[in-house]
Design a protein that fits this description.
Blueprint: H1 5-14, E1 21-23, E2 26-28, E3 35-39, E4 46-51, H2 55-71, H3 79-95, H4 97-108, H5 112-134, E5 140-141, E6 148-156, E7 159-163, H6 169-182, E8 186-190, H7 197-209, E9 216-218, H8 223-232, E10 238-242, H9 245-257, E11 262-266, E12 272-275, H10 282-294, E13 306-310, H11 314-325, H12 346-361, E14 365-368, E15 372-373, E16 381-382, E17 385-388, H13 395-398, E18 405-411, H14 414-422, E19 426-427, E20 429-433, H15 437-446, E21 451-454, E22 469-470, E23 487-495
Parallel strand pairs: 7-8, 7-10, 8-9, 10-11, 12-13, 12-20, 13-18, 17-18, 20-21
Antiparallel strand pairs: 1-2, 3-4, 5-6, 6-23, 14-17, 15-16, 19-22
Helix pairs in contact: 2-8, 3-5, 3-7, 4-5, 4-7, 5-6, 10-11
Length: 496
Amino acid sequence: MTMTRSDWEQHFQSLSLESRAFIDGEYRPAISGATFECLSPVDGRFLANVASTDEADANEAVAVARRTFESGIWAHLAPAERKRTLIRFADLILANREELALLETLDMGKPINDSMNIDIPATANAIRWSAEAIDKLYDEVAATPHDQLGLITREPAGVVAAIVPWNFPLIMASWKFAPALAAGNSFILKPSEKSPLTAIRIAQLALQAGIPKGVFNVLPGYGHTVGKALALHMDVDVLAFTGSTAIAKQLLIYAGESNMKRVWLEAGGKSPNVVFADAPDLRAAAQAAASGIAFNQGEVCTAGSRLLVERSIRDQFIPLLVEALQAWKPGHALDPQTNVGAVVDQRQLDNVLRYIQLGKDQGAQLIAGGSRTLESTGGLYVEPAIFDGVTNAMTIAREEIFGPVLSLITFDTEEEALTIANDSIFGLAAGVWTRNLSRAHTFARGLRAGSVWVNQYDGGDMTAPFGGYKQSGNGRDKSLHAFDKYTELKATWIKL
């Protein structure tokens, strides 16, 4: 039975929100006793005072994680045993789907329908996929002389810390902790202070699934306190991060100032979505362009925020785009009919509105949306916006807005389109629409981006790696390639 907004409100009344850190298998307050206030962007309601951990808590969690790793209680388990435990973890996440979806929506602002049908199932799937993969990864035997045996073995790296963003709190976390745990590491998760509640909750589910105490720890708090402490810690072996390019650069510095820990970064994006005149279906391309900027309130690192349209179809395409965007209307995030929820907090809302004003000031034409709405709810909602007449030199085409603001840029030739598409410090994703098979291949090859989607936008699943070129980061989440981030390769030569 489909739940109504009233059903979700009643469910919230029955919740007992956990807001403490999780270290060594138990919830505990921050050592300092500090907390921060967690308010819902959906309607401004108070959710919890969350433990604000800092360096002292990081030291405790790292010591616990190191101890459990060295004990072998998890790292030395047969891969098949870790697999079974992680599958139980995935099952528990699905069993608690409604609670986790409600927490995700109230904490971050995304539509409840997305939380229920995208975020929570995708999180469970990521855990299950990595679990199923781990006992199917084989080591290697080198090509050696007859009197030598060369073994190449994959071993867990040790203590892994992850700092994850607020836009997809559980999905982004699972892309990190699933392969890291499957490989046998001990793990410390630092969720964003803007959306910490689901990370805190699943820590208990991990323990319930059978992951030993101290193997999975959660430290809510701020990036400049506990996040920095983890990045500088001499006993953290691997740091995984998804977030802004500016913070990603700082984490690289911290790694160099400490123990040269491996740092894997998925940072910003300003992804081009290129529509050629020979696109197989212009209406479908317009609908994909609208969803590519409005989904999740535009708070998506791969959002198709730069829409490149061939000049010969511009006048035909714009009405289709405006019409498609009309299907994306902000609404109360607990309403199952809503497909555009609330922006995560007041600071982010102000930032989105600032960019919209900047676009106007720099001469772009706002042709749809762009206004704050639903203020009477107490929530933080903004209409998805389309700017026409944008050049790639404008600020709204250069900087990551992380909101539902689309910049439409026209081009005349394939060469010009490729030049504009690649003219960015980012290289996370890109789309191209054409029925010309040769162009699809050559243009995709020319794009400097980690993911390229042809005649669709935002395709892929757990079998394909995800990550960026240039200042969009390094390393890859998802797929078997993710295990490379959380394991060490050892070469052992034996004289026969």
